Amino acid sequence: MNQRKLQEFQTIFYPRSIAVVGASHDRWKFGTRYLQALIDSRFKGRLYPINSSTDEILGIKTYAKITSIPDSVDYVIVAIPARSVPDLLDDCADKGVKTVQIFTAGFSETGQDEGRRLEKVIEKKSRDGGFRIIGPNCIGVYSPAQRIPFGPMHFSVEAGPVGFISHSGGVAGNLIDDGIRRGVRFSKVVSFGNGCDLDDCDYLEYLAVDPDTGIVGAYLEGAKDSRRLFSLAKEISKVKPMIIWKGGRTPAGAETAASHSGSLAGSDIIWKAALRQTGVVKVENHEELVDTILGFLHFSGFAGKRISVVAGLYGAGGGASVASSDACTSLGLEVPPFTHETKAKLAAILPEAGSILRNPLDVGSIGANLEILNMAIGLVLTDPLIDILMIQVPVDFLVGLGSKKIFQDTIETVVSFRKNQTKPIILISPYGSAVTERLEFERKLSHANIPAYPTFERAAKTIVNLNQYYGFHGQQGMRISSDTLRKIS
Amino acid sequence: MNQRKLQEFQTIFYPRSIAVVGASHDRWKFGTRYLQALIDSRFKGRLYPINSSTDEILGIKTYAKITSIPDSVDYVIVAIPARSVPDLLDDCADKGVKTVQIFTAGFSETGQDEGRRLEKVIEKKSRDGGFRIIGPNCIGVYSPAQRIPFGPMHFSVEAGPVGFISHSGGVAGNLIDDGIRRGVRFSKVVSFGNGCDLDDCDYLEYLAVDPDTGIVGAYLEGAKDSRRLFSLAKEISKVKPMIIWKGGRTPAGAETAASHSGSLAGSDIIWKAALRQTGVVKVENHEELVDTILGFLHFSGFAGKRISVVAGLYGAGGGASVASSDACTSLGLEVPPFTHETKAKLAAILPEAGSILRNPLDVGSIGANLEILNMAIGLVLTDPLIDILMIQVPVDFLVGLGSKKIFQDTIETVVSFRKNQTKPIILISPYGSAVTERLEFERKLSHANIPAYPTFERAAKTIVNLNQYYGFHGQQGMRISSDTLRKIS
After folding, report:
1. CA closest to A393 among chain B residues
2. What does DSSP assign to residue B339?
């Protein structure tokens, strides 16, 4: 069963050859941009531009028709006007093509009779012709293992454990782009637009059994078969963390969704109630989506509710401590007092003036003294009342010190703690002016299994989401994801 | 009265000379870092390091004591241990110093008897000695017109219309740093820590009458005299937009606040209710604080509730349109349909396939065709049912096109609309990999009075906050802040 499903999707995510219809000498045409990105990504297969008025595009031999290609063609990308698509699909059938990804829009999402009719035509042609359709009205597939870029967008990173399906190419593109920057790596992403043939549930069934996918995410604006979707979500979330962002949760959003992907959004109350019974995490926007995926990537198992905060590094001040208490406890987490033992030991190493010797710990008084910081983190982490450490490192302040050595030493100090114990550590890394340095700092901590969040609120919401998932599925006790270090390049 | 208040604070924000006590040859000492930042900022007055064991620090002639300085001293920065502060204050009194800013912590915020006693001592010395105290336990003053940096943090930008007071140096520092990057400029900022002499209300009374301050913000963890604070807030918000972030809104946050600035946080419900009657905007975190200040900086007057969204530039997809509808309407704003006339005109210029010809308008089909984009924005802006335009420009997609010309042309296209009509335009500029280009894009639009927000949610919340303020004070009709173009460098 699983093998059959994997086989069925083989030419969708691992095609050996791709023809691009709609590429030309105009570099701004979407067809040309798809082809360019395939070249830039060093696609692991043969490429065939299709164009009857030239012999070569971007240095690649070009054919007049799909049927003129001498070798077999697994996958066709279509970026030509909607009215020309049906004839092209006849050629695809003749050629024995397995998968057709239709970027072209102008089908049922227009809400017009002609668009609906055209979509019915191509759907029938796919059934009759023995090929599957991705789309129409979609960006298509991102499959880094096969070096397939995401439409015109080329990302030069390796594959990882996150699979994602999306009604929206923009949402998927933003997720990939923002995710990669934060250390998320993907197995497969597919934007499937109107989903006239393969739809949300088909792709999810594949991701459920795909051995390279450990975390499943979805942006959905509705469901053609909500009963099947909810039942499938329940099955998947038993074995893989699953996150759904439901677009169109307000009446205005739902109306927009209908025009966008032709989806019937359905009531948000019903979605909320139904998803609650599946153990899926429901998120509300792009930030929460990336944040939650990042959390699942780094930590598996119930995270616990008892947060310790270390803030005020380099004298950055206690306002962050107050904000962290507000952020964590207003979301239902706890910032409990340290044990008497921890307090006493902290008091022995930290000057009282300029510090706050309680949880959240403010180490503002020690300036850039990393030796004391090191001891303080050690004390906090071994406190038995604490499940998770959030440490705020304002990289702008750090850069302001003007010492490359302190910058590197801070990284090593924090990283060394991750290596020597099992409690999760989360970096709170506020956006500031020193962007390059912040990204470098975050990248190095991410390699050590310490994910970065820009605010306490977003980190706290992530913990709440992870706890909801692992609580529902009865998995107690936080483990560090074994895959992560291997999969994050 | 106003003149007296301004005169009273003259040596706080415009001192002609500053002595730094605690500077040495150790560059990591806070005293040294204050001095270094004053030098880097080219402070508009005389500088006197105080240190009895050297004649010169950072190239500046150094005196053994305050009383050895031959000329007058307006302002003293104190970064020495708490126990040594009382004797120093005697010197300050002898010398006729006007203002003493005490960075040193270890006073009432420790919660210990000794700290409380010391704070009483310095308070009395200030009364007896005829000088005012900023602090203790604070970063102090940022006064760009006088070229006073914010403690050790030097910012190389001009002054602007935003005044801000803060119980936390970290919160103030983050606001300045993040704000400057987004085009916010400050008249005066003061972090006053425990506020043993001058406290929240004193500084607010000054900002109320300061002609260089047009917008007043505050981060407060409590109030020594809440009746006076709320009454003052009511007076100020009648004449200047006022924003308060109240730290310690949860019980855990309130406990932290007590240890941080010695504040009694008080119930959040009381603060909410009291502030609602003052017409002050209450915000919940750093992001909302900066966002709201930025909104007030660019727009004055009731903004209206009817939002139009233009998204999908460069084919970035309709997911953003759905998300924008959800974000705006869930906060109580409207995304109303366009008039029939607007719809008909849009249909005449935009291909149906790949576009969404309703509000939110998705121009995904036109790729990088700026001529059509230009016409589309024009149509949307002149629609009589629309108050505000939010336009999403995913700079990563824009950079991905690889054309410097399209990048510049997009800027000009959007900016030209701002110049030719009066409806507010807000840029939605998602965080992505192309950080440098995004900041350049945002800066250029900001100069044209188009502020940038990273998400629709944050832009929508800002509009809600502005509407609450101008609604309360009965100011109808959005005007573009006249100060902005002049004040943003």
Report:
1. B170
2. P
